[in-house]
Design a protein that fits this description.
By secondary structure, this protein is α+β, with helices and mostly antiparallel strands. The protein has a domain of 132 residues. The protein has 4 helices and 21 strands. Helix 1 packs antiparallel against helix 2 and helix 1 packs antiparallel against helix 3. The radius of gyration is 29 Å and the shape is elongated.
């Protein structure tokens, strides 16, 4: 039902995209026609002698049609000296000259602070109905994840009015780290995987604007595209620096604000439902014994803490410290052989539990191999955990249903493979 509903909403968004494209084409066509009329009016006007009323009426009619598509304002200095601008100030028609609107694909641009020497660009993967503003809150050079002094950034979805926070109300800061190769590690921020193509000279105050959707831009040859995509702030008011009024704003608001927020709510509902069902399901033990299993969720970086944004793991922030039990049975007789919990530090007395703020997928594989050296063999392939057993036995896990222990459920209720 949730999937069907989401598909219906996305279909409506697609319809809005079609209407947006048609409206932009019509705006540009009207602007060119008005500029052409300005030229004719200028040639036909003789002060005190002739006044091309038919042409003036035709121009007025076109301006009225244009105003139905977007809020505009006009300045008439007589004859063909006639200007039509968006309500935000960008001119569409200046006498016989025109500037176009254009629907552009998802893009990002830098908005660096004065004196910044950062020479890279922000990169992203994913789509969203919101625009993302990234602001560097601590500068420097990116080193390995967890390194003291790594730069960090915060994220706003409303142009910097408010910043993303965790469930406790604390402002979220995302570490900028690098595993080498000249670019930074990807981090998961809401629906986007975000990274930078240069690792040095991040400066506090540097901003990066991401528009992970098609947007509306005013094209001016000497200045480049200017983002004028209609935008509704979280308080319900229109962004006065963007196009407002008319059919264009309505189409964008339906696509991004109405449909976008509804999809966010559907997604949150689905994630909560998935989490709670898996949480309950994971309390039991499977009825089938296994000698091989592969995790269903992969991580982007196998050496970073699984609870960090650099792991790029769904619901990584929900991972909890804890442990998991393994039970082993003789594969031939089916008789119980042994059981035990993972020990993440065999050199320390007692069983050391998993800690999502410290332990990586590499640490998990090592813990399996160190805790059960004769029973299990753990490895990682394409960011996913793989477990094999010795030929003479076959493991069961308790608690145990669902995917391996890095699919976003609390660690104490994880299993490593599907039953």
């Amino acid at each position: 039902m949730i999937t069907s509903t989401a598909a219906g909403v996305k279909s409506l968004q697609s319809q809005m995209d079609v209407s947006i494209g048609q409206s932009v084409d019509r705006v540009n066509s009207l602007a060119k026609s008005i500029a052409s009329l300005n030229k004719q009016i200028s040639a036909s006007t003789v002060d005190g002698v002739s006044n091309p009323n038919a042409l003036l009426d035709q121009r007025d009619q076109m301006v009225r049609e244009l105003a139905k598509l977007a809020d505009v304002k006009t300045v008439d200095n007589g004859g063909g000296n006639f200007t039509v601008s968006l309500s935000t100030g960008q001119p569409l028609v200046q006498g016989t000259n025109t500037n176009e609107l254009q629907v552009m694909p998802p893009r990002a641009e830098n908005n660096l602070t004065v004196g910044s020497t950062y020479a890279g660009n922000v990169q992203f993967d994913g789509t969203d109905s919101h625009e993302y503003t990234l602001e560097v809150v601590s500068g420097g050079n990116a080193a390995a994840a967890g390194t003291a002094g790594n730069p960090s950034f915060r994220v706003s979805l409303d142009g910097g009015k408010t910043w993303l926070r965790d469930e406790s109300g604390n402002e979220l800061h995302y570490e900028i780290s690098s595993s080498g190769g000249g670019s930074t590690d990807s981090v998961q921020v809401k629906n986007l995987k975000i990274s930078f193509d240069s690792t040095t000279n991040f400066t506090k105050g540097d901003k990066f604007d991401i528009v992970p959707k098609t947007g509306l831009y005013w094209i001016e040859p000497t200045r480049g595209p200017q983002n004028i995509t209609p935008q509704v702030d979280f308080d319900g008011t229109d962004n006065k620096n963007r196009v407002s009024g008319g059919k264009l704003a309505t189409y964008f608001n339906v696509r991004d604000d109405n449909c976008g927020r509804y999809l966010d709510e559907l997604d949150a509902t689905a994630k909560s439902l998935i989490w709670e069902v898996n949480r309950i399901h994971s309390q039991g033990a499977g009825t089938s014994l296994l000698d091989y299993a592969q995790g269903q969720q992969g991580v982007s970086n196998t050496t970073v803490a699984l609870g960090s944004a650099q792991a790029v793991l769904p619901d990584s922030s929900r991972l909890q410290a804890g442990n998991v039990n393994f039970y082993f049975y003789n594969k031939t007789t089916g008789e119980y052989v042994s059981s035990g919990q993972l020990d993440f530090d065999t050199a320390t007395a007692g069983v050391q539990n998993f800690d999502p703020t410290k332990h990586s997928l590499t640490d998990v594989a090592a813990a399996i191999n160190n805790t059960f050296p004769t029973q299990l063999s753990a490895s990682i392939q394409d960011g996913k955990l793989i477990i094999n057993t010795a030929a003479w036995q076959q493991p069961a896990v308790c608690p145990g249903h669902g995917q391996h222990g890095h699919d976003g459920r609390p660690w104490g209720q994880h299993v490593f493979y599907r039953h």
